[in-house]
Design a protein that fits this description.
Strand content: 5-15%
Strand order of the largest sheet: 1-2
Distance between the termini: 49 Å
Structural class: mainly alpha
Oligomer: single chain
Number of helices: 9
Number of strands: 4
């Protein structure tokens, strides 16, 4: 069994902890499961509100307080892109074993990626869906990012400048 060392620093003490690949994957799955649950909660609350349910009804149904539903509704309203399916969600689903390697690769290969660019003022970066892949490389199996990068190169070159 191979181990991957991880360094943990606390003030002037540095210690190395070795995790097996299985433990490393399980630890990443905890984070992925938390994020996936958050996305699904936001989407569910948004959809229930759009169907006319009250925040109190939603709170009772999902077992949280009405103020928590209000916070979820506000987040969904202010960041609607979080509620939309994206490559990050596909990768999270793989990380928690909801889909297998073949499904991961198939979904990511056919994704209609958008690529980030500066806003018209040039002051703010507007991320595209490819940025979701870029920030998820730690959850991807070896070689998948490189393959996707190669397969999408023609799309990046074809972007208007």
């Amino acid at each position: 069994m191979a181990f991957h060392p991880v360094q943990i620093a606390r003030k002037d003490i540095v210690m190395a902890i070795a995790f097996s690949p299985d433990t490393d994957r399980e630890l990443k799955a905890v984070r992925a499961r938390t994020e996936l649950t958050r996305i699904r909660n936001l989407r569910t609350v948004r959809d229930a509100l759009l169907k006319g349910h009250s925040q109190l009804q939603i709170a009772d149904a999902i077992g949280v307080s009405q103020p928590e539903v209000s916070r979820l509704a506000k987040t969904a309203r202010l960041t609607p892109a979080v509620c939309e399916p994206g490559p990050r969600e596909v990768i999270l689903r793989y990380a928690v074993d909801e889909i297998d390697h073949a499904a991961l690769v198939a979904e990511l290969e056919r994704w209609p990626y958008t690529f980030g660019e500066a806003d018209p003022t040039g002051e703010t970066y507007l991320p595209g869906t490819w940025d979701q892949v870029e920030r998820s490389t730690d959850l991807l199996p070896a070689g998948v990012y490189e393959d996707l990068f190669t397969r999408t190169a023609h799309r990046r070159r074809a972007r208007p400048v």
